[in-house]
Write a structure and sequence with these properties.
Radius of gyration of chain A: 18 Å
Oligomer: heterodimer
Distance between the termini of chain A: 30 Å
Order of helices and strands of chain B: HHHHHHHH
Number of helices of chain B: 8
Helix content of chain A: 55-70%
Largest sheet of chain A: 2 strands, antiparallel
Order of helices and strands of chain A: HHEHHEHHHH
Number of strands of chain B: 0
Shape of chain A: elongated
Structural class of chain A: mainly alpha
Number of domains of chain B: 1
Structural class of chain B: mainly alpha
Largest sheet of chain B: none
Radius of gyration of chain B: 21 Å
Distance between the termini of chain B: 32 Å
Chain lengths: 170, 220
């Protein structure tokens, strides 16, 4: 998205293409029986028109999830049809996410945490070490490591607008 | 056969132009510039009240109100503007905490007005409403409108809020409050009843007007 804001058409095309399957899944899961293809196109158009509202220092998924959710609500209001809509506040993580986008968002979010805490979460969540293994690696108490990871994850949830309890530590 | 979904992606990518991302620092710099213009306007055409003129000389006012009144509206304007910056982007959420400064300011002024009415009665309080009402109202409404137009031109029209009505209301509240804070540097009507019924009403009317206008204009 950063490249797209700078006018890089190739990067922009790749972004839109990688987003399309996610958008299809996102709308299919929430709008059973609606014109999902139309919604995907409307969302891509909105993304294009409002791409300057994306904050380069922030994670991308909360932004695109909010655009998609806004378009979904708009569509339901406009169509006036009785359709089944689940207006959950989640980021659409179950709808599949391109690895590049996910990795970039993780890096952006971890950079907002204190360095030590980001390292603990990285070792635990990305490298798959247990809390005890993380504690042994960095020479800290396992309980302290668990608490720090838990608090860090809470902060990350707050940063992406996910309410406490919606995502577990595991 | 070409897939229409590919068509739209190709079309968007082919017509891509660089854009300047919205930066909150620009909003704050613009608001500071606008407030400075408002203060200059008040100082040039109305003049500051004596307590404010004497402040740089180190003379503190006998009461806090000459300073507290501009500060109250300044605080309200700044917190409303902060909410505007939070709500500008799609992912911005409306939180109850954003309304706390409004409720606190309203509570404080209403409390003072109630105390005044109980101790002095309505007849004495009503007399304190005489003086500068039209000027106060028109200055806050016209100044708020000028600020809102600037805010629209340089910020709001580029926004994409998931809460357009709240964004519109907060924009109106921010510009009217900041204008009220500038006007309060001149106005020597310090009675709580005046602050609620004249200042408060002017700010409330303008906020309502901005809400009605913005909820349509800020749709995307």
């Amino acid at each position: 998205m950063l490249s797209a804001q700078g006018g890089d058409a190739k990067a922009y095309r790749a972004l839109l293409q990688s987003l399309r399957p996610w958008l299809l899944s996102y709308f299919n899961r929430r709008l059973r029986g609606g014109d999902v293809e139309d919604l995907v196109q409307m969302t891509l158009l909105s993304l294009h028109e409002k791409r300057h509202t994306y904050n380069p220092q922030a994670a991308f998924m909360p932004w695109i999830a909010a655009v998609a959710r806004h378009k979904l609500i708009d569509y339901v209001r406009w169509s006036g049809r009785r359709v089944h809509v689940e207006l959950t506040e989640d980021l659409g993580l179950e709808d599949g996410l391109s690895n590049d986008l996910a990795q970039r968002d993780v890096a952006v979010l971890l950079a907002k945490l204190p360095k030590d805490q980001a390292q603990l979460i990285s070792l635990h969540k990305l490298e798959g070490l247990t809390s005890e293994e993380v504690a042994a690696r960095i020479g800290k108490n396992a309980s302290a490591v668990k608490v720090s990871i838990h608090r860090g994850l809470k902060k990350l949830q707050a940063l992406v607008g996910v309410k406490s309890g919606e995502v577990s530590d595991d | 056969m070409t897939d229409s979904r590919d068509d739209i992606i190709d079309s968007l990518a082919d017509n891509l132009k660089p854009v300047r991302p919205m930066r909150d620092s620009l909003l704050w710099a613009g608001a500071a510039g606008g407030l400075l213009l408002a203060v200059l306007y008040i100082s040039t055409f109305y003049g500051f009240r004596p307590e404010i003129v004497n402040l740089p000389k180190g003379t503190l006012p006998a009461h806090f109100t000459p300073v507290g009144k501009p500060l109250l509206f300044f605080g309200l304007g700044v917190t409303a503007l902060w909410t505007v910056s939070r709500l500008t982007r799609p992912e911005g959420e409306m939180k109850a905490i954003y309304l706390l400064p409004v409720l606190a300011a309203l509570g404080l002024t209403l409390f003072n007005m109630t105390v005044e009415l109980i101790s002095d009665g309505w007849a004495a309080s009503a007399e304190r409403l005489n003086g500068g009402v039209v000027v106060c109202f028109t200055t806050i409404l016209c100044g708020g409108m000028a600020g809102l137009l600037l805010l629209w031109r340089f910020w709001l029209r580029r926004s994409a809020s998931s809460h357009p009505t709240a964004l519109a209301a907060m924009s109106g509240l921010a510009t009217a409050s900041l204008m009220a804070s500038a006007y309060a540097l001149h106005c020597n009507m310090d009675a709580p009843v005046y602050m609620v019924l004249i200042y408060g009403l002017a700010v409330a009317i303008f906020t309502g007007f901005a809400t009605l206008l913005g909820r349509r204009l800020l749709k995307w």
